[in-house]
Amino acid sequence: MSNAEESVERRRGLGLFSMDDGTFICVDPTFARMHGYDPEELTGEHLDVVIAPESRVERSARGKDAKQNGHLTFESMHLRKDGSRFEALVSVVIAKDGSGAPRCSALAVEDLSARAPAPAQVREQRPAYDASLARQKYRLTEREIEVLRLVASGKTDKDIAKTLGRSPYTVHNHVRHILLKMGASSRTDATVRALREGLV
Prior knowledge:
The chain is an alpha+beta fold.
């Protein structure tokens, strides 16, 4: 693969990863290539290795916002292994562990430098536009979107039922229909797809 082809490939699509307390646990090849690394090189490293210094303080504040809201999308300056920089669109979904403590469930990064220049207001409208397209694609109802958002936050059917004032059986059926409509093999798969397509 030529350098030009590798550059195009690196910038294509979304890079996904998960982390614990700022340390990479799992990094997909797209995310690694986007930053000029192999996945194995990033696994076990701290997130700051790919975040520009001026974005690190903001990253910490954004992390707190995400933990409070359950999900968040924001822009950040990223670093490649060769020291070059690119502006990235970062989407975060926070799940809770068994003790109720927040942890990162899934994160996605898009290299904005691969896009044609666009006015700031167009980028601000993009998440809503993407979500609208995804809803049309999967034909999800508003209730199913609400359930999907709670699934992505790590809640069980019982927790969701309590939150929505519905029976666990009803929630279970909602989740089953969501997985069928999205062609997802599991709740985790549905969460990653929802994150990638701006549904949560």
